[in-house]
Design goal:
This protein is mainly alpha-helical. 47% of the residues lie in helices and 8% in strands. It contains 8 helices and 5 strands.
Length: 195
């Protein structure tokens, strides 16, 4: 996480770890031992599991047969079903976007960040997920803060974790920050590490 040009690590090096913040008390079990963590709703793995369950239970879903037969399911297939108007898929994606929006609204309201960059498998869902997330942020924090916050997907891709680690090492050892300005972001939601 970076704020005002400075990296924030936190006292125990967990700054920016919002995936394990509980946002619903009656939510799904999480691998961390809690229930209702953001990761249980808004990670790529959670979305795929929820789509498989929702589409498998809805015979009208374009993914019904895929979901029931345990055929491979990935975020590109989910994005295509969303674009086709599959209501089961749309509800899952909307829930993920609302969860992300709730978490981001807390960051915006607390830290007044101007840019949020989301990385990882969820980026395959494209603008629909971003739109839902942005709407939730607008609904949950001061409009003046939310309107001045840019929420985008990372352009870096699957290598983001390795590149981030290399950038931190270069900065610590050589006192340089190797990222180009358009690649750096004040807040990086570490979704790339979510399953």
């Amino acid at each position: 996480m970076e704020l005002e040009g400075r990296r924030l690590h936190g006292d125990h090096f967990g700054a920016g770890e919002i995936g394990h913040v509980v946002f619903t008390n009656d939510g799904r079990p999480c691998r961390c031992g809690n229930r209702g963590c953001l990761e249980t709703v808004a990670s790529a793995g959670a979305i795929l599991r929820a789509v498989r369950a929702a589409a498998g239970a809805d015979p009208r879903s374009v993914l019904h047969d895929v979901a029931r037969c345990d055929q491979p399911l990935d975020m590109d297939v989910v994005a295509a079903a969303y674009a086709e108007g599959d209501s089961a898929v749309r509800e899952v994606v909307h829930e993920a976007g609302r969860g992300l929006g709730m978490a981001i609204a807390t960051l915006v309201g607390t830290l007044n960040v101007q840019e949020i960059v989301i990385a990882g498998g969820v980026t395959r869902l494209g603008e629909p997920l971003l739109d839902i997330t942005r709407q939730e942020v607008l609904a949950r924090c001061l409009e003046a803060l939310a309107r001045n916050t840019r929420i985008e997907f990372s352009a870096i891709g699957a290598d983001i974790t390795a590149l981030g680690a290399a950038a931190v090492l270069l900065h610590q050892e050589l006192a340089i920050w190797p990222l180009k300005p358009q690649m750096a972001a004040p807040t990086l939601l570490r979704q790339a590490q979510w399953d």
